[in-house]
Amino acid sequence: MIIWPQYIDKNKSRKEGRKVSKEIAVRNPSIKLIEKALKKMNLNYKIYSDKRYPREHWERVGYIEVEYNGKKLEFLKKLCKVIREL
């Protein structure tokens, strides 16, 4: 499963790529912050830091590939919860 920071960014609109509601989303999530949350969740992942999000191709934000079997939206909600606890 591929996770871009834009999926959980409170500052982004749905058109800009946010997948979760604003109440759940996190302000300016970074790859490092997402990595800390994934470590806490004990999930295997791989970081691709030199990649560009297609809707914002002028900026290198990177993404994380996570080994997770389940629905993406449920995972993103869990991820936001863990990030807020950090």
UniProtKB/TrEMBL annotation:
Q: Which UniProt keywords apply?
A: Cytoplasm, Ribonucleoprotein, RNA-binding, Signal recognition particle
Q: Which GO terms describe its biological process?
A: SRP-dependent cotranslational protein targeting to membrane, signal sequence recognition
Q: Which InterPro entries match?
A: Signal_recog_particle_SRP19, SRP19-like_sf, SRP19_arc-type
- Could you name the Gene Ontology cellular component terms for this entry? signal recognition particle
- Entries under SUPFAM superfamilies matching the protein: SRP19
- Main localization is cytoplasm
Q: Which Gene3D superfamilies match?
A: Signal recognition particle, SRP19-like subunit
Which residue ranges does UniProt annotate as crossing the membrane? none
**Subcellular localization, as worded in the UniProt entry:** Cytoplasm
Show the GO MF annotations: 7S RNA binding
What function is annotated for this protein? Involved in targeting and insertion of nascent membrane proteins into the cytoplasmic membrane. Binds directly to 7S RNA and mediates binding of the 54 kDa subunit of the SRP.
Q: How does it assemble?
A: Part of the signal recognition particle protein translocation system, which is composed of SRP and FtsY. Archaeal SRP consists of a 7S RNA molecule of 300 nucleotides and two protein subunits: SRP54 and SRP19.
Q: Which family does it belong to?
A: Belongs to the SRP19 family.
Q: Which PANTHER family match?
A: SIGNAL RECOGNITION PARTICLE 19 KD PROTEIN (PTHR17453), SIGNAL RECOGNITION PARTICLE 19 KDA PROTEIN (PTHR17453:SF0)
Q: What is this protein called?
A: Signal recognition particle 19 kDa protein
Gene that produces this protein: srp19
